[in-house]
Amino acid sequence: MHCWGEIPLLALARVEDEENRGEHQRNITAVSAGRSVLAFVHKDGRGSFLFRGHDKGNKPKPRAFTLGKDKIRRLSCGAFHIVLLSEKGKIFQLNCNKLPSIPRSLGLTDKDVIQVACGDCHSVALTKVGQVFCWGVNSNGQLGLGKEVPIAENPCLLQTLAETPLARVSAGGGHSFALTLTGVVLAWGMNSKGQLGLGDTEDRYFPMAVKSLRHRKTIYISCGEEHTAVLAKGGLVFTFGAGQYGQLGHNSARDELWPRLVAELWGTTVSQIACGRHHTLAYVSSLKKIYAFGRGKQGQLGNGKTCNQYVPLPIEQFGESHKDHYIDRIIAGGHQSFAFCSADQTLKDCYSLPKDMICTLDDKIVNNWICKCDSKSWNAIKREITTIFSSASCLNGSFLKKRHPTTAEMISVDLSLARLSFEKLAQKDKVLNKVESVVLEKLLPSLSSLVAGTEGNGVYLLLPELIRVMATHESRRDVSFAFADAVLRLHPQCLATLEDLWSKLPDTFFKSLVKVFHTVSTCCLYQMRTQKSTQDLNHWHLLEKPVKILQNLYKVNLRAGRKIDDKNFYISEVKQLFLTPNSAGRQEVITAFLRCVFQKWLYKLCMNPCILDMDTKCLLFKNYIHTVIEVSNYACYPIQGNVLYVNRKSLLTDTIQQLRHKPRNYSWALQVIFAQEYAVDHGGVSQEFFSIIAKEFHSARPQMFQFFEDSRLVWFCPEQAECEPDMFYLLGVLYGMALYNFCVMNLHFPLALFKKLMNVHPTLEDLKELSPVEARSLNDVLMEDEDFVEELYLDFTVRDHELVPNGQEIPVTKYNRQQYVDAYVNYVFNTSVQKEFNDFAKGFKHSCPNTTWKMFLPQELMALITGNINYEWDELRKNAKYRFYEPTDENIQNFWSVFNEMSEEQKKNFLAFMTGTDRLPVGGLSKLQLVVSNPNKADPDIYYPVANTCYNILHLPNYSNSRQQWGKNCTKAESLLSNKPFERKPSLRTFSECD
Fold this sequence. Notes:
By secondary structure, this protein is α+β, with helices and mostly antiparallel strands.
């Protein structure tokens, strides 16, 4: 070892004769220097230190210390203290300014420490399982524990880095650094000179990634008192922080807030760096040269001078006198510099010694576990499993990608490699069971709510792959629940980062992730359904978390462009909660059971609608009306009944007057009574009412709507003085009533209306649906050649309205065209109709007290209210049922024969005749069950078919076998149907009284 600078190391040898000095230097294995402390370790594991505060006025004398039977492996000096690392991985601290100076244990007896680093008044330690412990003064956040902890006497776990796979920790005067295995730099603490490299001078109280170094693949960090040096892959050196002595090597005394490449070292491959208090060393192994720069007053630059040096220059005297030796490592500290030399020319990587690295899992270790788990080595294997699988840091570090992930990829772990390893573990139940217990009992409870960087999130991507191979249902369930709890414990910002990672997952792995929570939710629901216990609702509480994560994953899936099909999220067990076999073997709704047990929790399921298919949503929506809202409102609401008494000739006027002036309870089922018609409304009359009034709005209130010829759709017409102030509110009331009563009301609105009701912002695609011509023009603006855009002479106005303040003065350019298009779409769907839509939405929400409508997607809500026109007429016959008929009867065959010969318009009229509307319910004709019944008339040929619209029953007389007679009656009936409204009998629609 060779040294130069303020205090010659030879003074510590206690040997004055020249013959023995060299031998003592060769016995030194480690050295460290702080502001007032210099210490070293002998080959025999003893240590000595020199403290300038002792023996004032005299030459300092070295003092020896030991750790008893244990040996010292590493040490690090602060301003007044020394931290010692023993061969057994235990840490001790020696306070030099206190007498007697005896090392004291810092605890952590169950931890295997592999690295230590000291700042002036704080210390950092890294353990074998990747945990970081900090202690000392925290005045500037150098412990990373937040502002609330001013000082820590004993080591405290830095929880924010608990999941991050770390390669190294470093400390400077009042700042700290950690380096991940993927080369990401994390910094915290004092930043008065920019020594954290974050572009400012604000102190940081928690670790933050130095983003400007993200793509540099850092391999080593060294800290001075107020400056930092970073060695990147390829031998590049970056420095930042205080530069008043030239310690940054930029030929300047200026401070640097961002990492800056040391240009004077460009072209050389630096293999080692070291920072002293105010100086820096860099070693180029290919040239066998040490470069020095910074403060030189105490001779620490080794150039024989005592002046500062602002650029890196080689230490010529050192190179000439030691040209036959090879440098193992360089060290700088305080105002001293050191170099360990040997005659071995093998290039050594002194930064990645096996004892200094965290534990990781590889294929060799897995094979060893599988092969030797039944031998005497099992106890040792169990300890290895516990070490690796209890630590998120070790698990993350085990499957890191070979290359550094780009910002676009973000995912730092190799999931394919993890899948293969976990599948291999599953070959031995004994090994897998031990892994499961460690993960459940140690790993998952230890996961933090704060995660620094994307590397720490790797464990949340790896665990689903482990759960995937778990053999027993019980273990998968328990680990899945604990995993869901850990995910939901994450801080919102950390959870958002994890969701970004989920969106980057390949489809196969994303599907596996969804399946983890889908499987455990399904099993939980099955147990609840089969037990039907009102005593123990524990399963409900367990179910909440995996279902909530499924909902988050569903949103991620939508943002990512539907990586997997929606059906992967549906849980069929939810629907079974409503249905149970009755004594006749059929399915019926469980009303009483829902009321006593499932009301509260089914409502919570509605808040996570991704698990519900459209049929289940409709069933839940309908039953929630009857089991919760109606029951509560009937009991406490002073107004009972929801009846509309209207005349067909003045339908719209009568409806508006009654909605305005007659109080009603919208929780009650709507009852529509047409004047001079007797009919009991079980749904069919209401449906006809909504079908007619939708047409009435278009014809009687055209000023309320803008009609778009190119799409045949309508939108609100803004600022219409001709309309009564409450018309849009009343329109919303009718829409809400239609939804609440499961009726179809189609006013030809676009999907954007239902998006707005669900607080989803319309986009250019929605404008394309409403007005294809306008959308095409806007799309051309976005796709046009950049230079041509300005020749369109557009400004930020539309229809004589300014899209932004002073929009007439702002031309559309290639730089702001996206802003223009977004503002245009926002104006059409939001700004221009803000009052009209707000009134509509208020009325809609008021008249539909069943708030579970929010579980529908916008397109589902649209389908539910407006119906659809996907007429698959074969489905009508396929699903038909018969009363007092057989499908093979001649009358039935004649009916379908005549039906098939009808035109498309006639078939729609027949549909309106049967149901009250020519629009189809959700699911189309496959969900519409027509019942054809024989009324058993004595002389059937004189009767027309009669429809019971409430129950979709067609009372079809058993006509004579003459197809001509049958067709005559049906043709006349169809003619009447297409030209006149129908008279009504109780719940019946009949042709016979139309004349």
